[in-house]
Specification:
The protein has 125 residues and is an alpha+beta fold. It has two helices and eight strands; from the N terminus they run βαββββαβββ. Keywords: Dioxygenase, Oxidoreductase.
Length: 125
């Protein structure tokens, strides 16, 4: 890999199971992970789709949430991002094993950076 690859999209949804069933049954995606909160994670074999279950006690509205890039070296990429005048990427505060770092673009859109990809450890891309 010589440049970052877009590999992951995430949406906050009201009914993650229903949405996952739709993408699985109608578009042939494969569910590869489900969180205890009901969030579902699917893949088409190249791009992963995170359907994050909206929580009533949460502060995130439904809709687009973030996207993610697979990169060769997170530190090098984080330095390049910071050179553009945005905050340096930081370690994600989550127990999900899909992405190591969170960053923002100049307009405040979230994106993840991962050197190992966006599938759980042990599942090959």
């Amino acid at each position: 890999m010589t440049r970052p690859r877009l590999r992951h999209l995430a949406f906050v949804v009201q009914d993650a199971k229903r949405m996952a069933d739709f993408y699985r049954d109608r578009l042939g995606m494969e569910v590869f992970h489900q969180d205890p909160d009901g969030s579902h994670f699917l893949t088409d074999g190249y791009v992963n789709l995170a359907l994050i279950q909206q929580r009533l006690d949460g502060d995130v509205a439904t809709g687009f949430n973030h996207f993610g890039f697979e990169v060769e070296d997170v530190d090098v990429t984080a330095d390049r991002i910071a050179e553009a005048g945005v905050p340096r990427a930081v370690a994600r505060a989550t127990d999900r094993p899909f992405a190591e770092y969170r960053a923002i673009d100049p307009e405040g859109n979230w994106f993840d950076l991962s050197a190992h990809g966006f599938l759980p450890p042990g599942i090959a891309d």
